[in-house]
Amino acid sequence: MSIPTRHRDALKGESEGALVVTISPSDRCLLLYRLEDWEQVEKKLTALPTLNAQTRQLKRMLIGHADDCVMDGSGRILVPTPLREFAGIDRKAVLVGQGDKYEIWSEAQWVAQRDSMLSVELDESALPSELESLSF
Fold first, then answer.
1. What is the DSSP string of 67-89?
2. What is the predominant subcellular site recorded for this chain (predicted)?
């Protein structure tokens, strides 16, 4: 997968293009982290108690499917076949920025997800209090 030029510097970070890709526990997409960001997530996940079934499942999904990859000089990464299959990525992929990570979607699934999100009117009363002062 070729990383768009405008995102390459942000993904290089301190680890010079060392990245981690894993599955999303909530959507049929992949999560792409800079190595230093992933290490923080992994540390928090491993600190969670293992006696809780949901915690174990989350660890299995995120840590168990995590795979290292390195962005080459042309800004490309190799996404392992099992992860591409999970996300339904065959030819075209979409990279969606999320601040501390990126989502990688198959183009068709992203278009469907985006259209679904746009068709639902936001319920402002259900927004978390942290978003009350946010303005667009």
1. EEEE--TTSB----HHHHHHHT-
2. cytoplasm
Task: Assign 102 to helix, strand or coil.
Answer: strand
- Where helices occur in the chain by DSSP H, the ranges are 5-12, 35-46, 53-62, 81-87, 107-119
Quickly count: other Cβ atoms within 10 Å of residue 13's Cβ: 15
Residue 39, CB-side half-sphere exposure with 13 Å CA sphere: 7
Q: What is the topology classification, in CATH, of domain 5-121?
A: Chemotaxis protein chec (3.40.1550)
Q: What is the pLDDT of residues 2-11, one digit of tens each?
A: 998 888 888 8
Q: How many CA atoms lie within 13 A of 59 on its CB side?
A: 15
- pLDDT level of residue 136 (50, 70, 90 thresholds): low
